[in-house]
Amino acid sequence: MATILLIEPSMNINPRLHSFIGSTTGPWEIIESRPIIGAGLPACERLLYLPGHASSPESESGWVLHGATSNERYVTRPEKELLLAKQPALNRPEANCAVLIPIKKNAAWWALTQDERRQIFEEQSHHNQIGMDYLPAIARRLHHCRDLSESEPFDFLTWFEFAEEHSAEFDKLLARLRATEEWKYIEREVEVRVRR
Ligand code: HEM
Fold first, then answer.
1. Which of 11, 27, 113, 119 has the most other CB atoms within 10 Å of its CB?
2. Is ligand 1 within 6 A of the CB of residue 130?
3. What is the largest CA-CA distance in the chain?
């Protein structure tokens, strides 16, 4: 059984920080883990998603990824209001399926200005507009890793929860997003599908 070591000084908890731990323990069984762009992640049996900063002993064959929730960068006020009205919370009892998709964007993306990125994200790629078609079936949470440390392998950890009956819809959402201009700037993407 894997031992998870939690490092989080109790006096200094950042409530936005979260950890995903691939190992032999956790409520989520890993059904499939596959690389979409670039290298995948080592194969593991189970996934743990925790608040705080976790690390595993070096002997573990698993992995730990860290990310922090943050303010929005790209949404306009009307888009934000629509999202708030339609998006469901995580941990719904019927949402027995989840997918962790860690993503790294390339240097060309990060060299763009904020308004150039927004232009690609929404005006060209319609990321939010496409995503809204799948709410409230899919619950989502976005974590940022880029500014946490130089050693984080991804820029974003995206997490989605849904009931099994919505699996095919989730696949359609992925296909639509992956065909967009925005996805040309992605240099690493992994898909980790789990079930409770
Ligand atoms: C479930 C429907 C979805 C909705 C409603 C949605 C909506 C959004 C919104 C509004 C943002 C921008 C947040 C901000 O303003 O900073 C965002 C960012 C992001 N989403 Fe989605 N999304 C969805 C699905 C997905 C999926 C399936 C993926 C991955 C395959 C994904 C990956 C990302 C990434 C990586 C970002 C960060 C982009 C960046 O800051 O460069 N999203 N999403």
1. 119
2. no
3. 49
- Any idea where the domains of the chain sit in the sequence? 31-39+69-195
Q: Render 76-117 in DSSP notation, one character per residue.
A: -HHHHHHHHHHPPPS--TT--EEEEEEEEE-HHHHTS-HHHH
Is the CB of residue 88 below 6 angstroms from any atom belonging to ligand 1?
no
Give me the CATH topology for the region 31-39+69-195: Alpha-Beta Plaits (3.30.70)
Give pLDDT tens digits along the chain (196 positions). Answer: 445 555 554 446 789 999 999 999 999 999 999 999 999 999 999 999 999 998 764 546 799 999 999 999 999 999 999 999 999 999 999 999 999 999 999 999 999 999 999 999 999 999 999 999 999 999 999 999 999 988 899 999 999 999 999 999 999 999 999 999 999 999 999 999 999 9
